[in-house]
Write a structure and sequence with these properties.
Blueprint: H1 2-38, H2 42-45, H3 58-89, H4 94-106, H5 111-125, H6 132-156, H7 160-168, H8 173-200, H9 205-209, H10 227-232, H11 238-246, H12 251-285
Length: 288
């Protein structure tokens, strides 16, 4: 048995090594191909251009941040209450099991389906147009199944002794959930947010479906100056900008795409780092 344990441990370490080597090689390749643009400050402060030496990602990375902040807000705003209701208030009957199975299956639905759904509902039915609001809602719905499932799993992991002790003191279901279960499970919920964000930030198909632009030479208004105007502004997305440059025949555009891909990884890392930090602080505060 000891030899089998050592073999399995060695096999696991080897697999982790191969995965990390593959990921590290991708990062190094992108950095080396686009290093001269990555280190050029004009690349971050310039708009897209038909001249590769003058092209930048200003509108792309600004719109990406706006869209991802909105997507995270909508996914948490809708997904966490839905997960709490299904786990704590929805019961354990047949209907609840059917809803749970469908939500789990939705996490495997191709992203283009979410784009078609958003095109029919948000763009045409609600008349939101091809805007930042539509894009954030689309990615928020794409993230929703993961948030709901991780919320339910985080609530299930809390020991029954906590529930029994709270009920013994005469607390209601509302007090149990919002004063005890939710604070203890917030770390697991943020883990789901990290996973969902990492998937959503690389999506291109649903945003192309709802009318994302590949060339924008202006920025949306600042949120504290014209919040409604910001929500209604047309948008682009960093993966879409990368796709546009990769499709060009010039080698210089391919180097721009490599630099933008490296920046996209850094942006994803920053968003995940914020979630990791919040999860660490919350878990340190609420330990059981």
């Amino acid at each position: 048995m000891k030899n089998k344990d050592k073999f399995f441990e060695f096999l696991g370490i080897l697999c982790v090594f191969f995965v990390l080597t593959f990921l590290f090689s991708i990062v190094i390749k992108l950095f080396l191909d686009g290093v001269h643009r990555i280190l050029d400050i004009k690349f971050y402060t310039s708009y897209p251009s038909r001249f590769p030496e003058e092209a930048g990602i200003l509108s792309a990375w600004v719109d990406t941040i706006y869209i991802m902040v909105g997507a995270i807000f909508w996914s948490i705003f809708l997904g966490v209450p839905a997960g709490i209701y299904l786990e704590e208030f929805g019961g354990k009957g047949k209907l609840a099991r059917i809803i749970e199975a469908n939500i789990t299956n939705l996490s495997a639905v191709p992203s283009i389906v979410y784009g078609l759904l958003a095109l029919g509902i948000f763009v045409h039915r609600f008349k939101f147009g091809e805007s930042i609001l539509t894009a954030s809602l689309t990615l928020g719905i794409l993230m929703l199944p993961v948030i709901v499932v991780t919320t339910r799993e985080s609530l299930r992991r809390i020991p029954k002794t906590i529930r029994e002790g709270v009920y013994a003191l005469g607390a209601t279901n509302y007090e149990l959930v919002f004063h005890h279960l939710l604070p203890y499970s917030i770390g697991g919920i943020l883990t789901g947010v990290i996973i969902a964000t990492s998937r959503a930030i690389g999506e291109t198909a649903p945003l192309l479906t709802i009318g994302a632009l590949t060339f924008i030479a202006f920025l949306p208004p600042l949120p504290w100056e014209d919040f409604i105007g910001l929500l209604k502004s047309p948008f682009t997305f960093l993966p879409i900008q990368i796709f546009n440059w990769v499709s060009r025949p010039q080698e210089a555009f391919h180097k721009n795409a490599a630099a933008a891909g490296f920046i996209l990884l850094i942006l994803c890392l920053l968003l995940n780092s914020v979630s990791y930090y919040l999860r660490y602080k919350i878990r340190k505060k609420y330990q059981w």
